[in-house]
Amino acid sequence: MVLARLSVWNFKKGKREDAFAELDRILTTLTRNTKGFRGYLSLLSYDDPNASTILTLWQDEESLATSEKGVYAEAITKVQDSLEKPPQIENFRVFSTELFMRPE
């Protein structure tokens, strides 16, 4: 069973780009070595220049819970000064998914 954590990040005015670059660094380096990590999507809001959303995928409940104390906690610490408020998070059970890339 794959699980997902959806987190919505609201940054102080003008802080999103630098803070999100730090979050992306964490996602591309630390999570790859985290047991049970299955992937992520990083989304920058068109409507709100200070908001972003991150969807991470986890192999099981243990991996999801462990990540909250590890990678997620580190991410919060790294960008704390740029946050308007703590991220809103919600966890999901993935029912189905299909991701593919078409050749150009």
Q: Secondary structure elements and their pairing?
A:
Elements: E1 3-11, H1 16-29, E2 37-44, E3 51-58, H2 61-69, H3 71-79, E4 83-93
Antiparallel strand pairs: 1-3, 1-4, 2-3
Helix pairs in contact: 1-3, 2-3
Structure, explained:
This protein has 104 residues and is of the alpha+beta class. 31% of the residues lie in helices and 35% in strands. It contains 3 helices and 4 strands, in the order E-H-E-E-H-H-E. The chain has a 4-stranded antiparallel beta sheet. Strand 2 and strand 3 form a beta hairpin.
Give a nutshell description of this structure.
This protein has 104 residues and is an alpha+beta fold.
Describe the largest sheet: 4 strands, antiparallel
* Secondary structure: helix percent: 25-40%
In what order do the strands lie side by side in the largest sheet?
Answer: 2-3-1-4
Strand content: 25-35%
Q: Can you give the mean pLDDT?
A: 90
Class from helix and strand fractions:
alpha+beta
Shape: globular
**Count of individual domains:** 1
* CATH third-level topology: Alpha-Beta Plaits
List keywords for this structure.
104 residues; alpha+beta; Alpha-Beta Plaits; 4-stranded antiparallel sheet; 3 helices; 4 strands; globular
